[in-house]
Amino acid sequence: MSDRIFNRFAAASRRGFVKGAGVAAAAGAMAGHLLRAPRARGASTQDVLRVGLVGCGGRGTGAAAQALAADKNVQLVALGDVFADRLESSLALLQKKEEVASRIDVPKERRFVGFDAYKGVIDSGIDVILLTTPPHFRPLHMQAAVDAGKHVFAEKPVAVDAPGVRKVLAACADAKKKNLSVLSGLCWRYHQPHVETIRRVHDGAIGEIRAIFANDFRGPIWAKPRKPGWSDMEYQMHNWYYFPWISGDFNVEQHVHLLDTCSWALKGQYPVKAYGTGGRAWRNDAETGTIYDHHAVTFEFANGMKLMSHCRQYSGCLNNTEVTLVGVKGEAAVVTPDLRITTGKRTWKPREDKSDKYQSEHDALFAALRRGQRIDNGDYMAKSTLMGIMGRMASYTGQLITWDQAMDSKEDLSPAKYEWGALPPPVIAVPGPKA
């Protein structure tokens, strides 16, 4: 990760508790290693909150920096990753940053490597765990963290298949019983300009929403060629983005931000059915695995309203990331650099705010812990993930997929076992009846 990107991740905006971020007041004692009875009334600002990170890639490194920047009495005390070199490079990068280096205490005995690394991090005396591995592992790691009484930051998306979504929902239900916070990486819900724009939509600025257009047109991203000596599992774990069992496909891994914003604008409604298409127009080599490079899905809601969702990753083409809500009184652009609400000849825009949305969500989490409150993003982070999975099911099969079919699906993308070695040959989904 470059210093420029790291500094964007690590910038402390000190936004505190974000209005409208879905934070519920808590009662009873806060669970966790240090969050015992006295902290139920709000943790003292002098109490050290110990953080562990599982998944030491660029996003994980950024999340660790943001957690440290969110509160002056946070310490990073444990790291876990499936690859030792990635763990060490993450730690080295964090230690070079003067603003956080003094609060990093990760000796060799608290650096855990391998598929079971998350267990070591959980058992290392932490209060808060940051889960930033590839999405496939989120349900397993989240359930283990909640079982152990840890507060959770879970990067988006939180699963790659319906069994994983159901496991996350169960873990979130357990977290609620234990009074544990669950913060989602769907960070637009913690960015004040987005919060204010959606609030106005909820207050009726554009009237009843009749249609939504979600465009997510991007260029290609990184790909890692296979090195001599790598097993199938090692190669796919290095090149994880391109294999649906690890990433969920890019319409789940990245497009979930836009789909979640659509549901947020609709006050938590989710579609009743979906149908669409997709394929591989440019991704035609081994390094791009088996995911599609375009998806076009129509989601229908119970009231008949439709969301037209389009995403693709092509080289040398127009880039356009936006969500447009079409209402009976006007339109709202709720995911663009130019957020706005237009009614007739009048256009409203949120006030300028240069804060970092990634930082804002961590500020909200640690402010809540200090106040004896809990954040519960569990329901929407799981259901918005399922919405992406539902779209993938529709484009992979060419069939109409209902919400209940998606939620109840038994399709489990997990490998037979987690170990370095051979995997079945990857298969590219082909829509239509199977021979």
Structure description:
- The protein contains 15 helices and 17 strands.
- With 435 residues, the protein is an alpha/beta fold.
- A nine-stranded mixed sheet has the order 15-14-13-12-8-11-10-9-17.
- It starts with a helix and ends in a 27-residue tail after the last helix.
- The relative contact order is 0.17.
Give the helices and strands, then pairings:
Elements: H1 3-10, E1 23-24, E2 49-54, H2 58-70, E3 74-81, H3 84-95, H4 98-101, E4 111-113, H5 117-122, E5 128-131, H6 138-147, E6 151-154, H7 162-177, E7 182-184, H8 192-202, E8 209-218, H9 232-238, H10 244-247, H11 250-253, H12 256-265, E9 273-279, E10 294-300, E11 306-313, E12 320-327, E13 331-333, E14 340-343, E15 346-348, H13 357-371, E16 374-375, H14 378-397, E17 401-402, H15 403-408
Parallel strand pairs: 2-3, 2-5, 3-4, 5-6, 6-7, 8-11
Antiparallel strand pairs: 1-16, 8-12, 9-10, 9-17, 10-11, 12-13, 13-14, 14-15
Helix pairs in contact: 1-2, 2-3, 2-13, 6-7, 7-14, 12-14
